[in-house]
Design brief:
The structure holds 2 protein chains of 2 kinds. Chain A is an alpha+beta fold. Chain A has 2 domains: 2-120, no CATH class; 132-195. In chain A, 44% of the residues lie in helices and 21% in strands. Chain A contains 4 helices and 8 strands. Chain A has helices at residues 13-25, 60-72, 132-160, 164-195, and strands spanning 2-6, 28-33, 37-42, 48-54, 76-80, 91-93, 103-105, 114-120. Chain B has a single domain, classed as Orthogonal Bundle (Arc Repressor Mutant, subunit A), CATH 1.10.10. In chain B, 56% of the residues lie in helices and 10% in strands. Chain B has 4 helices and 3 strands. Chain B has a 3-stranded antiparallel β-sheet. In chain B, helix 1 crosses helix 2. Classes of the chains: A alpha+beta, B mainly alpha. The interface between A and B is medium-sized, with 22 and 22 residues.
Chain lengths: 199, 105
């Protein structure tokens, strides 16, 4: 018997992971994902464990390669969107992405910003990035879109000047994106500090 | 994944990946090797392993092994990789010797 749930987590990967793991603990295994839709099937309680990973900075080829590497390890992998807009043949520029991923279309990386990864629960933590250096690299990939959004919003704020409302909205947006950037940035700093004494 | 440029020291994971590939292995077998040899102490995540394999391949320390069309890609250590691993063994021996002299004296 399958059940359908509708949720939207945007960029809150921790919340999405916790929710999926709570569903798994209650005996529901993820079988399909949509824009907002998550389809679950009944399974043994706690048999599977999930983690969510950001891959929005990779090229489509690199995303596919990484996905098949994870599948070779015996994991099940689902693509998941971070955005909510409904689009066909959309094209967006991602200056922060790796070479090959800077032009994102609905046929390639658009709406495939996240991976939901499932493995059989062996009682151990499920982390994909365990090495400090690798985690720093991962967080750097995550922080870049916020950095570009900040600069872009600031430029727009100047362009709209002296229209007070539009300038205020753009300035507000610039301030807003500094929140997630600061959270990720503090994680990078903490890891760098730890790395000076241990691997 | 970063080997220390100044001292030439490898990270523990890098050294273990090189050691695991004296016999050709695919990703899952590398993870199992590390898990077994450290009795579960060193937990290597799949994302970190993926990055490490790519870096070590770029450096020419490991290379794909056999038929690359196969579903599960296998890797094996190269001559350069063996040289690096041997150098690391010598470094660790020296370090252990110094530590033993100081700590156990």
């Amino acid at each position: 018997m399958s059940i359908v749930k509708r949720r939207y987590f945007a960029g809150f990967m921790g919340s999405q992971t916790r929710w999926l793991n709570k569903m798994a603990d209650n005996g529901y295994r993820l079988v399909e994902t949509g824009k907002l839709k998550y389809v679950f099937e009944k399974c043994e309680s706690g048999k599977y464990i999930y983690t969510v990973e950001f891959v929005g900075d990779r090229s489509f080829e690199e995303e596919e390669k990484y996905k098949s590497f994870l599948e070779d390890l015996g994991y099940r992998v689902f693509y998941k969107n971070m955005h909510l807009d409904y689009s066909f043949n959309k094209l967006v520029i991602r200056p922060w992405a790796d070479k090959g991923g800077r032009i994102s279309t609905t046929r390639s990386t658009y709406n495939k910003e996240l991976l939901i990864v499932e493995k059989e629960n062996d009682g151990r933590p499920f982390e994909l990035h365990t090495e400090k250096e690798d985690r720093i690299k991962y967080y750097r990939g995550m922080i870049k879109p916020y950095y570009y959004a900040f600069v872009f919003a600031l430029i727009l704020a100047f362009v709209f000047w002296p229209d007070r409302i539009k300038t205020a909205i753009c300035g507000g947006l610039a301030l807003l994106v500094t929140i997630p950037a600061a959270i990720i940035g503090s994680k990078i700093l903490k890891l760098k500090k730890e790395k000076t004494v241990e691997e | 994944m970063k080997d220390n440029v100044k001292s030439g020291a490898l990270t523990e994971v890098t050294f273990f990946i090189l050691l695991s590939l004296y016999e050709p292995k695919h990703g899952y077998a590398i993870m199992q090797f590390i898990d077994e040899k450290t009795s579960g102490r060193l937990l290597l995540g799949a994302g970190s392993l993926y990055g490490a394999i790519n870096t070590l391949t770029e450096k020419g320390w490991i290379k794909p092994y056999g038929d690359s069309d196969g579903r599960k890609k296998e890797y094996v250590i190269t001559a350069e990789g063996r040289r690096i691993a041997e150098k690391e063994l010598r470094r660790l021996r020296e370090l252990t010797k110094t530590a033993e002299t100081i700590i156990e004296s």
